[in-house]
Amino acid sequence: MKNITIEISVEVAKTLAQLADHCTEIDKASDGLTSHGALTVESLLQMLANDASMILTRRGSWEGDRMAALFASHGYDI
């Protein structure tokens, strides 16, 4: 594994924690039928990083295609 350190605002960190908690509640409500189970901020960001890498490693996958669309909305037409 490789560790990557990023700086984010306190507000973004709080919002990511809320999002991870929300995803965890969804996981519990679905009896664990989500793809990554309960999420922490760290595991949420790992999931997003993995999906972003699939733009190049699994071309045509739904994960890669949806992440490519997100990048395109920021002007990066991959």
Concise account of the structure shown:
By secondary structure, the chain is mainly α. It has three helices and no strands.
State the total count of DSSP E strands.
0
Distance between the termini: 26 Å
Number of DSSP helices? 3
Order of helices and strands: HHH
Helix content: 55-70%
> In total, how many domains does the architecture comprise?
1
Shape annotation: globular
Output the radius of gyration: 14 Å
How much beta, percentage-wise?
under 5%
SSE-based structural type: mainly alpha
Largest sheet: none
- Compute the average pLDDT: 97
Low-confidence stretches: none
Walkthrough of the structure:
This protein has 78 residues and is mainly α. It has one domain. It is 63% helix and 0% strand. The protein is built from three helices and no strands. The protein has helices at residues 10-29, 41-57, 62-73. Helix 2 crosses helix 3 (62-73). The protein is globular. The model has no long low-confidence stretch (mean pLDDT 97).
Structural descriptors:
78 residues; mainly alpha; 3 helices; 63% helix
Write the layout of secondary structure elements.
Blueprint: H1 10-29, H2 41-57, H3 62-73
Helix pairs in contact: 2-3
